[in-house]
Amino acid sequence: MADGWLSTTHSARPGLEVLGALLLALVTLVFLPGPGLDAVAPARVQMIDTDTGLEALSGPDLPGSPIHYHAIERPAGIAWMVWDDVPLPDDGTPPAVSLIGPLSATIHFNGVVIGRKGEPGATRDAETAGPIDSLYAIPPGLIRPSGNRIAIRFSSQRAGYTPYAVVHGLFVMPYASDPRRSIRYYLPLTVMGGSLIALIASLMVRTRTTGDRRGLWLVAALAGLVLAGAAEISRSLINYPYDWHQPRQAASLAGLAVFGTCWLRFVQLRWPAAPRIATAWLAATLAAVAASAVLVTGYDGKSAFALA
After folding, report:
1. Residue 106 forms beta bridges with which residues?
2. What global pTM score does this model have?
3. How far apart are CA 253 and CA 109, in angstroms?
4. Which domain holds residue 86?
């Protein structure tokens, strides 16, 4: 009986091995622990959707409304966000303000400018795009025993798209000379990328040995995943101006779309269905990918829907 089962599944074995390797890589990506981040974020910030000026923010009664910084949408012009009662470390570690996302900003600590992330502007031409990641030291002489305030004047005129969240991160953390994300942040993705490159090499050798060109669809699918991963990891290598964030995310979306399309095509060739059904399924899938790329807000959402 065992011999009969083995002979039945022999033809499917290469495809099952590749599927198992992919699942192992994805499980590794999901469950490997990420690096720890010794940082403090605000529970809420006060969002003022107009260029009110720093003087109007000097009193205890602030205009605007409290909101989580992840929920801040791209303002029409220049806006402000204020973080009150900022907690600061008392262990002697030099603190800094980290501001991350597709926006330009001027950062004030207790009424004094401590950093400029580009230059905010009411129009695209008036704004200078700042780096995607930024970190600004807080001078010790500005720190009060309590009641510290961070006020940020910002705009996002050069994003090129409507971000799901303008502020990706707002933290107080230990100062570092390099504002870029550490490569450790992408450790699971780096591990999976190395596995995928090794898998691509083995598939190319197998395709050349067997002459079965269907394997090239798998090679193209995995190359799409590598492209998406390389676009993501590039953020830790280059602290690019934030108006390059859209092309980087578009490259990642394209890589995921290539992966999904080529994987589906390989499955159709490896375990063929009726030609009309296969063509209709592929066409419907590509239409759904195109619709999600147009209709969904934010590239993380676009990528998730397209890949699904």
Report:
1. 116, 153
2. 0.76
3. 37
4. 45-174
